[in-house]
TrEMBL record:
PANTHER family: KREMEN PROTEIN (PTHR24269), PROTEIN SLG1 (PTHR24269:SF16)
Name of the protein: WSC domain-containing protein
GO cellular component: plasma membrane
Pfam families the UniProt entry points to: PAN_1, WSC
Organism: Macrostomum lignano
Keywords: Glycoprotein, Membrane, Signal, Transmembrane, Transmembrane helix
Domain of life: Eukaryota
InterPro entries noted in UniProt: Kremen_rcpt, Pan_app, WSC_carb-bd
């Protein structure tokens, strides 16, 4: 049975009781279409949120040059879900099967609506941008509540691209108990999950609701913001 844990009760509830094994990520209430926009080239994409990643969560195909690509599976819903792992505000679909994430868009200006008319191969009833053109959407999330869910650290893995250090997706600070780690994540807008490493008394504050393999190797459990 899943349970949510509020920071105010963490001090009085034994951590051994806080078992939550279902994966969690920021909850998308709905998404909305914004328009068709020009994209840059591989060296400077408009939406850059996935830069430096190789895989994230259940999306096991290789992420390359800031985008996720799988022409057979990318849809509006799957791109929204992928980008929610980083609580990104915006996502873009391009050329039938490319998915981009970011917290800003429009650096290269708007494009004609007629430039975004390619059908998504993953769902032929949906539009997935066009050549070098993004169909831009906005994710609307449920407000943060101060709740965390405890999940197994291996439930949603993240790997970085070759040449990228794993700690580019998290930062560390000292903590004597797990509660300090949770409090630090709660007050950090860019922290979506955290792990307390008891052996070294270190707190890992993660930018994604997906666990870097390095963190999974040193902590059995992580706490994720819903």
């Amino acid at each position: 049975m899943q349970r949510s844990v509020h920071l105010t009760v963490l001090l009085s509830v034994p951590l051994a009781l806080l078992f939550l094994v279902a994966m969690s990520q920021p909850s998308v209430l709905h998404y909305g279409y914004i328009g068709c926009f020009v994209d840059g080239d591989n060296s400077n994409r408009d939406l850059k949120g996935l830069t430096g990643l190789k895989t994230i969560g259940p999306f096991t195909d290789k992420i390359n040059l800031a985008y996720f690509f799988n022409v057979a599976t990318v849809t509006i819903e799957s791109c929204s879900s992928l980008c929610a792992l980083g609580r990104f505000r915006y996502f873009g679909l391009q050329a039938q099967g490319f998915c981009f994430c970011g917290n800003s868009y429009g650096a290269y200006g708007a494009a004609a609506n007629s430039d975004c008319q390619e059908l998504c191969v993953g769902n032929s009833s949906q539009i997935c941008g066009g050549p070098n053109r993004n169909s831009i959407y906005k994710n609307f999330y449920a407000p943060e509540t101060g709740l965390f869910k405890r999940v197994a650290s291996t439930k949603s893995m993240l790997t970085t691209a070759p040449g990228q250090p794993e700690n580019s997706t998290y930062r560390s600070q000292e903590a004597t108990v797990a509660f300090e780690c949770l409090a630090a994540c709660r007050h950090s807008p860019d922290c979506l999950a955290c792990a307390f490493v008891q052996s070294s008394r270190m707190c890992r504050l993660m930018r994604f609701a997906a666990v870097p393999s390095e963190v999974a190797s040193e902590a059995q459990w992580v706490w994720v913001k819903p």
